[in-house]
## 1
Amino acid sequence: MSIKIENLTHIYNPKSPFETKALDNINLEIKDGEFIGLIGHTGSGKSTLTQHLNGLLKATSGKIIINGLDITNPKIKLVEVRKKVGLVFQYPEHQLFEETIYKDIAFGPKNLGLSQEEIEERVKEAMALVNLPYDTLKDRSPFELSGGQRRRAAIAGVLAMKPEVLILDEPTAGLDPRGRDEILDQIKLLHEKFRSTVILVSHSMEDIAKLVDRIIVMHQGQVALTGEPTEIFKHAEKLESIGLGVPEITKLINKLNELGIHLKEDILTVDEAKEEIIKWIRGNENA
């Protein structure tokens, strides 16, 4: 699904002493099937923006057009929008409330009025997508699972709705490194399998760098930068001026280049850096 945002502004507590402009005339276009990384420091407007995309917040002004449909139109039935745009909040496991994993994941599909047979099929498929064994875990309480498993179960509840746009707000917050890697690997596999539109909100430059097609940088309610990861990380000074910086591996490559060890500048991961450094060493041994 394509998303077009036109002159979007959102003001919290308007005409009061606590008035705050969270979004300031945002203009963006997200193409069908894009994997977007949305980054910015706390208070930059990231979460406010994502909550507009499935109608949780009402715009002060501007439009959001999803697949040609203006979801800011008061006549639009937002329940139909939310079937197509799935939003996974930060710490989504805190919203698990049923007595079993099966019932929790089945909650959304059940509210769609699906048959019991189709609900069961969706639960099985969603659990498989997040690498949770159906037969082993379906009857377990969510609170018997590890933190990473609970997070994946909560994501499965959104996936069972089969959204065409998946928005994940800091999906690895609070997880240990293993749990974080498991979640990010599953998100990457989901995008590769379905080519659906994915918007990943994160503070981690390293996570964003190795996953997304394009980065949108938010600052003070506006879009500060947008472009492919290699393009964005060329603006190290600007990123640092707004409290973000660049991935550590990018800093290392830049430092090596300054020292005369000439490497590609579009390296984003440790594996790419290792391969390039080994290539440079071998080239200089043969020189």
## 2
Amino acid sequence: MNATHETPDFVITRSFQAPRQRVWEAWTKPELFSRWFGPKGTTTHVEAFDLRPGGMLHYAMVMPDGSRMWGRSVYREIVEPSRLVWVNSFADAQGAIIRAPFFDGKWPLEMLTTVAFADEGTATRVTLTWRPIEASDEERRTFASNTASMNEGWSGSFDRLDEVLD
């Protein structure tokens, strides 16, 4: 069996009381995305936002102490308004992939991110799935052991998204 399939995906689902098109726009318009993306207590600055297959989102999350944690997403698939797929990585200020600034270098370099948007009555259900790409056994173990942290981070972002959609 391929070890990649032994690592469970991280999946988080949330329903938002807003039409699917409005939720989609919160993910695909940089001026909205920067208002909610990132854990509570952070501010996100979008450096580049090229929403097309092969295009890149490059952003900085500014921590409460003023430090910056950079990230990048390279889009693979965009199906408006139902699906976004991208490869997510930590990055430097120029957008190059770097190791996570924590986890002692044991976090996967790249994560496949899939976000599905579905109508749920008058609400929109968002399902986000994260999966390590070409990760070592140690990186997959680190990923699998951090489900609670990933849940906390995404839940904080989703709480902020709720506020933006209000």
## 3
Amino acid sequence: MNRKDIQLILKELNIVPKKRFGQNFLIDNATKDVIIKQAQISKDDIILEIGPGLGALTENLVKTAKKVYAVEIDSRLSSFLTNKFSDCQNLKIINGDILKINIPDHNKVVSNIPYKITGPILEKVFFNKNPPQGILTIEKAIADRIFSYETYKTSSRITISVNTFMKPVKKYKISRNSFYPIPNIALALVNLSPRESIDKFLINDYQRRFYLKILEGIMPFKNKNLANALELYTKKKLKLNLNKKDILNILEQNNIENNKVNTYKVSNFLEISKIFYNKIG
């Protein structure tokens, strides 16, 4: 479908694209071909597509995959897709909010995901003990941070969290003109593979949430020394009665140096989380 096709269908459906839903519809076949090629879909794949829109990607996914679950928040688009793909036995359209529904089992996510909720989607779909592969069109600034895992001074919370569960494989710049309406942000396609093993600490749901909260709490202070960042976080969020001296003693007892937060690696953050989890356990 080209721009005129999209505009005509949206007019018939009485839909004005909403920014809050991230409604930017894929109109470029070359971009679609790149996404599908990266997905390397097999007949055994169970695909989750988030925000299928008018089905530009869906029509390719259903050709090969064993099953496709397409989650669409807009009821009018959901009805349109149901009619468009009425003959597809391997497709299930789910009208709902991806952040609120129970997600069906799947092994691969192929999506142009809503840009405004990229972080929450990553956390719900990928930050777990058995994450799927992800082929995602996302904001380029976020993609750059995900792939900055070897240069920790430019890393952020999303760098550490994504690289805890996933292995960044490839990144491609995607033209904004591939979508209608044209997004206001630069875009990139990322290919993320699940890590071969996830630290045992993260298997437990409560411990995993604790780890992600630690990252959320101290990464805003990534240019401060670890003890300072932890003192600010533990007082505000963990309600632990620990001053900087206490924290320095804990770090020393566990052979962790008090360096700037942006110098630590994923394994360091995991160890720090385990230590402070035990303090409140």
